TrEMBL record:
<protein>
    <recommendedName>
        <fullName>Collagenase NC10/endostatin domain-containing protein</fullName>
    </recommendedName>
</protein>
<dbReference type="InterPro" id="IPR016186">
    <property type="entry name" value="C-type_lectin-like/link_sf"/>
</dbReference>
<dbReference type="Pfam" id="PF06482">
    <property type="entry name" value="Endostatin"/>
</dbReference>
<dbReference type="InterPro" id="IPR016187">
    <property type="entry name" value="CTDL_fold"/>
</dbReference>
<dbReference type="InterPro" id="IPR010515">
    <property type="entry name" value="Collagenase_NC10/endostatin"/>
</dbReference>
<feature type="domain" description="Collagenase NC10/endostatin">
    <location>
        <begin position="1"/>
        <end position="154"/>
    </location>
</feature>
Length: 160
């Protein structure tokens, strides 16, 4: 991923490629960034988190960390419109985050700041099938898992 900046850049460029105008950040903790902090405090409890079709995944950013479960039967889409739970592009159905359940960075869970894909190094990830994005378990950094992108610009009412 080339670090957190590389992951953020991938989110930004993939969003732009499909015509989205906002700023998108990787759903990842880093040494100087807890996952919980990537959305502005003023928006954390009042703006719903939606997928690319504006279907509500979570009632708010805070809900990701409080109850932590995606709403039933609401898909998570890639920027090219694929349902990540049902598409073979992501066979392992895991999402990287590098965090504790509360959204703080996990000291040993960030694949050496998202720069390593070595089997001997671990990062924190969660199984997407659980519906909980922060059901943290240590996983080999060699895994090709999903990296979610969160819109954190404030021109629109809903975050994607």
């Amino acid at each position: 991923m080339r670090g957190i900046r590389g992951a953020d850049y991938l989110c930004f460029t993939q969003a732009q490629a499909v015509g989205l105008k906002g700023t998108f950040r990787a759903f990842l903790s880093a040494r100087l960034q807890d996952l919980h902090s990537i959305v502005r405090k003023a928006d954390r409890d009042r703006v719903p988190i939606v997928n690319l079709k504006d279907e509500v995944l979570f009632d708010s950013w805070d809900a990701v960390f409080n109850d932590g479960r995606v709403k039933d039967n609401v898909p998570i889409y890639s920027f090219d419109g694929k349902d990540v739970l049902n598409d073979g592009t992501w066979p392992d159905k895991m999402v990287w985050h590098g965090s504790t359940g509360g959204g703080q960075g996990h000291v040993d869970g960030m694949c050496e700041m998202w720069r390593v894909d070595n089997r001997a190094v671990t990062g924190m990830a969660s199984p997407l099938q659980s519906g909980s994005l922060l059901q943290a378990s240590a996983s080999s950094c060699s895994g090709s898992y999903v990296v979610l992108c969160i819109e954190n610009s404030y021109a629109a009412e809903a975050k994607r």
